[in-house]
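Below is just one:
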Amino acid sequence: MNSRILSALLLNAAILFVSSDLLYAQSDPTKEILVYFASGIDRAPAGQAAPVRSGAIQRLLTQFNIPGSHVISAFPTFLEADTLKKSPDGRTISLPNMGRIFRIQVPDSITGNALVDSLKKLPNVIFAEPNMSARLFSDPTYGNQWHLNNTGQSGGTSGADIRAEQAWSIFTGSSSVTIAIVDAGVETSHEDLSGKASGDSPDGDYHGTHVAGIAAAKANNDKGGRGVDWNAQILSKQIFSTAYISYPDNPDGYMGDVNTYNKVVSAVDNGAAIVNNSWGGPYTTTVRTAFAYAYKMNRVATASMGNSYQSGNPTIYPAAFSQGIIAVGATTDADARSSFSQTGNHISVVAPGGINPYPNNN
């Protein structure tokens, strides 16, 4: 088995639930709609209103009291040449023309769903959808590493773990493997990550640092915990920011689907072999397109099933995209399903994620 796949499997057994323009950074993504217009609107530079050429589109915007300044290009710097790329094995990969996607800021006086429904009826609209509202999923037992080697001495079941010590006797990871942590940023100067982590820093939320540590914290350095892959490199890609928490309906500070698309694609283009996602939300085409690209480029994507089983067991994405996704559920130290772990036919693997019994963690 090659080192990249083995690293991905070890990583999934341990990690559970855990460049946008200035105008976008100052807007509330939960009050935006993303629309793919095949025609009728022209692209514009970053921060400038997109010229509307279609009378039908203009009438709809007027009906919903949306000024022209509230319609801007979602990917203003996207090059049409980027719709064709080469995979590592030489295949030609096709991407949608992301330059045809536009952001519409929705006034508080109307509901986004009403506008989406109306937009979908226009013949030149390929898709219209609200910006996804995603949540971070935290590992309930971060710092308590029984999942690496459970001896049963703390009340659990001996062997209810990922057998990391046995794996390390065969392979401790490779520095040629880069794991992208798509999350809230990683403290790259952390003593257990320094020299092996790069990319986006956190702005107050250290969820991403925890996830990076579980994946690849240094071993045998007398500095706390130990990651599953001792030698892997970490590439941080931030999609959650505390600057966004002040917006209603965005408690974890999700930065929006456009940012997520850019970060996932950037992780792939910068050589990440594994793209880890300890977060999730409802389905959107924009985010699905990013993970389809990762799949076509032969990257391994991992995603949490979620930790809201007791809140209706909703289906969340990217875990449920299925194609190219290793969807991970949680088990207890007694080899039973953790009470909070979501279920579904798309699940790929389960691994330690909570001591039983453990209260619901939403």
